[in-house]
């Protein structure tokens, strides 16, 4: 099958388009013919080698962390799916590979595609929708009337997180450029901070939750907007000891993560708030829970551009510029 393959870490020369073996289908797997794949910042970070310690992949590696397509074969233990089913998924971290004509995944990671969505729309959602759900619902336990700051509101995670937070009844603030201000308000943001003009830490206060997807300077300033007992949840790091325990890291890696997050954890403790790192996990049950919200229009996919499969490297280069409104998607054949 044709696939885009990472032969060695680094931004250049990028991914190689080549022939790869058809995926093995294990007893609990579904084999999916890929119709569309979402492109994520995570793909760029894996390509660049930023996750070598957390995710020690064996190269060559097929990238791709979002997929929508049609089931073409199932393993003997599979009960939820049959050939011909339209599905979408975030493949488990150990078995990524959506930038290919086919991908095999454990059925626990997969859900039936929401009927209201095209394949391209469906491929744009799993990683960002699961991230928003796991931060706001699972980790933050966001409640009606609470206040949440969602950084980078015009990005892939931000666009979905704003919509989900409003559905949960929260008051939502976000940071973005002035050019995107009206647009993120239409998504549901109550307060929009232009990061080029205003310091969000000087404008906002008394917040219950902050979802951070940006760098260390924004992370530390985010502590200032939280009220006592508030939660700072970062999807961009640094990883903390709880995450090290979650992934069964070695003693050495546990110490590394403890050191990496020591400063922000201590700062949070002094302010009477908490810091945690979240690395989104594949979860078909949560995708199923999101399905009715998507079909009802509560959560709508936001796509900036769709690239043909042959232009996968161009799609990643476009995403790397950091100006995409919503998601970048690759469409097969």
Q: Which helices and strands appear, and what pairs or packs with what?
A:
Layout: E1 2-6, E2 16-19, E3 29-39, H1 41-48, E4 61-62, E5 67-74, E6 86-89, E7 102-106, E8 110-112, H2 119-123, H3 126-139, E9 147-150, H4 156-167, E10 171-176, H5 181-187, E11 191-194, H6 200-203, E12 207-212, H7 216-222, E13 226-234, H8 241-246, H9 251-260, H10 262-271, E14 274-277, H11 284-295, E15 303-308, H12 312-320, E16 327-331
Parallel strand pairs: 9-10, 9-12, 10-11, 12-13, 13-14, 15-16
Antiparallel strand pairs: 1-2, 1-4, 3-5, 3-7, 3-16, 5-6, 6-8
Helix pairs in contact: 3-4
Organism: Lysobacter gummosus
InterPro entries: ADH-like_N (IPR013154), ER (IPR020843), GroES-like_sf (IPR011032), NAD(P)-bd_dom_sf (IPR036291), Quin_OxRdtase/zeta-crystal_CS (IPR002364), YIM1/Zinc_Alcohol_DH_Fams (IPR050700)
Keywords: Oxidoreductase
Task: Give structural notes.
There is one protein chain. The strands form 3 sheets. Strands 3, 5, 6, 7, 8, 15 and 16 form a 7-stranded mixed β-sheet that branches. The protein has helices at 41-48, 119-123, 126-139, 156-167, 181-187, 200-203, 216-222, 241-246, 251-260, 262-271, 284-295, 312-320, and strands at residues 2-6, 16-19, 29-39, 61-62, 67-74, 86-89, 102-106, 110-112, 147-150, 171-176, 191-194, 207-212, 226-234, 274-277, 303-308, 327-331. It is globular and about 55 Å long. It contains 12 helices and 16 strands. Helix 3 (126-139) packs across helix 4 (156-167). The protein folds into 2 domains: 2-125 and 301-331, Quinone Oxidoreductase, Chain A, domain 1; 127-277, Rossmann fold (3-Layer(aba) Sandwich), CATH 3.40.50.720. Helix content is 31%, strand content 26%. By secondary structure, it is α/β, with parallel strands linked by helices. The chain starts with a strand and ends with a strand. The mean pLDDT is 96. The longest helix is centred in the middle third of the chain and has 14 residues, at 126-139.
């Amino acid at each position: 099958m044709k696939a885009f393959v990472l032969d060695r870490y680094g931004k250049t020369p990028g991914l190689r388009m080549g022939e790869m073996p058809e995926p093995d289908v294990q007893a609990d797997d579904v084999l999916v013919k890929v119709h569309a794949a979402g492109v994520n910042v995570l793909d760029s970070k894996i390509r660049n080698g930023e996750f070598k310690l957390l995710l020690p992949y064996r190269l060559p590696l097929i990238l791709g962390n979002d997929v929508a397509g049609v089931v073409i074969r199932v393993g003997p233990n599979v009960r939820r799916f049959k050939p011909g089913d339209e599905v979408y998924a975030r493949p488990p971290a150990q078995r990524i590979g959506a930038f290919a004509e086919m991908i095999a995944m454990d059925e626990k990671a997969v859900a039936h595609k929401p009927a209201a969505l095209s394949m391209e729309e469906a491929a744009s959602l799993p990683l960002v929708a699961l991230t928003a759900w796991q931060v706001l619902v699972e980790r933050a336990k966001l409640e009606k009337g609470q206040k949440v700051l969602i950084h980078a509101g015009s990005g892939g995670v931000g666009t979905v997180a704003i919509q989900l937070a409003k559905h949960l009844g929260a008051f939502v603030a976000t940071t973005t450029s002035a050019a995107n201000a009206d647009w993120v308000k239409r998504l549901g943001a109550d307060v929009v901070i232009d990061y080029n003009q205003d310091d969000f830490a000087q404008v906002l206060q008394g917040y219950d939750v902050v979802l951070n997807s940006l760098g260390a300077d924004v992370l530390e300033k985010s502590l200032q907007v939280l009220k006592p007992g508030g939660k700072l949840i970062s999807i961009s790091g640094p990883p903390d000891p709880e995450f090290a325990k979650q992934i069964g890291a070695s003693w050495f890696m546990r110490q590394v993560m403890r050191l990496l997050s020591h400063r922000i954890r201590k700062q949070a403790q002094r302010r009477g708030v908490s810091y945690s790192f979240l690395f989104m996990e594949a979860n078909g049950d949560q995708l199923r829970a999101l399905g009715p919200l998507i079909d009802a229009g509560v959560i709508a996919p936001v796509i900036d551009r769709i690239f043909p499969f042959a232009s996968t490297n161009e799609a990643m280069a476009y995403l790397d510029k950091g100006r995409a409104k919503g998601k970048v998607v690759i469409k097969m054949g």
